[in-house]
Amino acid sequence: MARREGARRPPPPPEEIRRQLGWRLAPTDSERLLVQFYLIPTNYSHLATQVALDWLFAPVRRAARRVNSHQILP
């Protein structure tokens, strides 16, 4: 009988499901701040890597441009 009664009841609203599972739609401000501080070193290391690669490959790019500019087209 309890099964029949449960089958007739509508499912809980999405807010109740989120509350029961501990889900949130947006992180709190303190969590957002922690994520930003976590990503700062990542951004700096990505920037430093990009600058180093550009610096290392600059002569190769210049040489390639020089070779392509002197090509004679048929």
Describe this structure in words.
The structure is a single chain. By secondary structure, the protein is an all-alpha fold. It has one domain. The protein is built from three helices and no strands. The longest helix has 41 residues, at 29-69. It is elongated and about 90 Å long. The termini are far apart. The mean pLDDT is 79.
Key features?
74 residues, elongated, mainly alpha, 76% helix
How would you describe the oligomerization state of the chains in this entry?
single chain
Shape: elongated
Helices, by number, come to 3
Uncertain segments are none
What's the structural domain tally? 1
Structural class comes to mainly alpha
Percent of residues in helical segments?
over 70%
| Pattern of helices and strands | HHH
Q: How far is the first residue's CA from the last residue's CA?
A: 89 Å
Task: Report Rg.
Answer: 29 Å
Strand content: under 5%
How many individual β-strands? Answer: 0
The pLDDT mean sits at 79
Q: What composes the largest sheet?
A: none
Gist of the model:
With 74 residues, the protein is mainly α.
Question: What does the secondary structure layout of this molecule look like, with pairings?
Answer:
Layout: H1 2-8, H2 14-21, H3 29-69
